[in-house]
Amino acid sequence: MQDVIRLLPDAIANQIAAGEVVQRPASVVKELLENSIDAQAKNIQVIIRDAGRTLIQIIDDGGGMSETDARMSFERHATSKIRHADDLFKIRTMGFRGEALASIAAVAQIEMRTRRPSDEIGILLRMEGSELKSQESVACLPGTNILVKNLFFNVPARRNFLKTNSVEMRHILDEFQRVALAHPEISFSLYHNDTEVYNLYAGKLSRRIVDMFGKNYREQLIQCQEETPYVTVRGFVGKPDFARKTRGEQFFFVNERYVKHSYLHHAVLAAYESTISEGSHPFYVLMLDIDPSHIDINIHPTKTEIKFDDERSVYALLMAAIRKAISINHLSHSIDFESNVNFLSPMSGARTNTAPNPPSFTRDSALAPSLPTSRREETNLSHWEKLFDGFQKPDPTPVQTTLELGEKEDFSESLPTTLGSRANALNAEDEDIKNRRLAVQIQNRYVVSAVKSGMMLIDQRAAYERVLYDRYLKQLENQNAASQQLLFPATVRLSPAAIPMILEMREEITALGFDFDALGPDTLVVRSLPGDLPSDNIQQLFEELCEQLHQSHDELRLNRAETTARTLARRFASRYVVRLSSDEIEKLINQLFISSNPNYTPSGEPIFVILSLDKIANLFKNG
């Protein structure tokens, strides 16, 4: 019988390895930047065209390579970083596998010019699909200049799976930011389609953060510094007031290498406990310096995963360092020993709720025509009220609530004598309430309503998300959103990574009532907003929009209109987690049950649950 196992050719083996190392253009940028850092470069320039599809060029002034080293660098498992197996446990360099250049050369066309400072002339190599096309001597500056052209030219299936230019460019910017934050002592510049995106000068970490994210970060940075024999923690964390609802600007670096570690992120959140609201995420750029023998980074080719030999100690030290930094800056809650808590007014110290008033959701309001009115929804409208059969308030017996002078107060014949009888008597005069279903709000988050089978508990934020989603989707289809013109155009500064993403979705965002233009790589001018959104903090509004779009690009695989409607509904629904009046509660319930799917949010989360009488009885029995 003929043998069937064969050794794969080097070209095929390199393409297989490239599938793990080179997943998208951002992977190429990351690997080449790390090579430049390992070469002791002090100035690194990144040039991108068409989000990396056409060109990725990295120019550095590092140590360069000899002719032999330049040729060997494109071989698999060829590296200058390690010599023995023990070196894996004392790695200080960014790269060590020796796979990056070989993997990139397997799926792209490469030109590399490199020269050592001690050499008079450099070397030019041309690679294509793992094959050496030419090698010659050239005059060039000290350092390395590498061009990666037509990525995935020989793997069309991989090229077709690339996302839009704005999405791919966002991933490139993410990788660029991580490397630039880890090495503030190096100057970085980034150009996309001949437009300067970043020009970062060498300096301190605080300056790098401000240069990268904007001047408004100056006032929110808190320095964090703690040294122990096991690990050193340094960097900056954000003030609790600047915490946001979505993640995005949280960076961990271990020995100057960016890592993702949910356990350490939990330590940060634990340090902020009671200083930020639930579900918020603070800004932080934290550097952990630790002996390489205590960690293992040889887990995945991307090298973003890491293991510690004592995670609990790292967790405790990190949490203690952040708590110390917050307390030094007097940002933790303090005890007021001069106030008498026994005599505080229930409203004393209460924070002013600046959230907008909930929109008026009624069947006859202007919002109703913008919602779908399919056959299924008409059926929902005609039958959902049966849930509440038997729970409308009966007409109460008229009660005299205004007492004449000298008249005795007697409710024995009208209402039972209870603690709430006086309130019941006062409410009985309101004719608009007498037939209203029983529904109350709990902690501005949930609505409880009595139904025929028991009790219905509604998630207020989820309900608004469903209603807003239907509204936005209808507006996108009909292009009829109401808009409010700003008296004076507002200027909004965003990160360079956010502007391309906003401009890509401009048509959909404009259809909802926004009107804006780009003034530069990091600035928008806003002229109008949707009619139901507040105009008091437009900067925060667009930051929230960008954060949600950033998150949705990774999570959603829908058409752009549906993606936009879902994104905005999820972001702006949280603005309506406020105190609701009885009318607003009833209007929300009405609007929810005429929506396209009152059971679930657009992302599939349940909106309400019904507790039957049997379940309620079991709660008391089990208790």
Automatic annotation (TrEMBL):
By its UniProt entry, which InterPro entries does this protein fall under? DNA_mismatch_repair_CS, DNA_mismatch_repair_MutL, DNA_mismatch_S5_2-like, HATPase_C_sf, MutL/Mlh/PMS, MutL/Mlh/Pms-like, MutL_C, MutL_C_dimsub
Q: Gene encoding this polypeptide?
A: mutL
Q: Which domain of life is it from?
A: Bacteria
Molecular function per GO: endonuclease activity
PROSITE patterns, A to Z: DNA_MISMATCH_REPAIR_1
**Record has Hydrolase as a keyword:** yes
**Purpose of the protein:** This protein is involved in the repair of mismatches in DNA. It is required for dam-dependent methyl-directed DNA mismatch repair. May act as a 'molecular matchmaker', a protein that promotes the formation of a stable complex between two or more DNA-binding proteins in an ATP-dependent manner without itself being part of a final effector complex.
UniProt-annotated stretches for the region Disordered: 348-375
Where does the MutL C-terminal dimerisation domain start and stop, copy by copy? 439-580
* Residue intervals of the DNA mismatch repair protein S5 domain: 209-327
Compositional bias (Polar residues) at which positions? 348-363
Question: SUPFAM superfamilies from the xrefs?
Answer: ATPase domain of HSP90 chaperone/DNA topoisomerase II/histidine kinase (SSF55874), DNA mismatch repair protein MutL (SSF118116), Ribosomal protein S5 domain 2-like (SSF54211)
Protein name according to UniProt: DNA mismatch repair protein MutL
Question: Which family, according to UniProt?
Answer: Belongs to the DNA mismatch repair MutL/HexB family.
Q: Which Pfam families match?
A: DNA_mis_repair, HATPase_c_3, MutL_C
Record key words, sorted: DNA damage, DNA repair, Endonuclease, Hydrolase, Nuclease
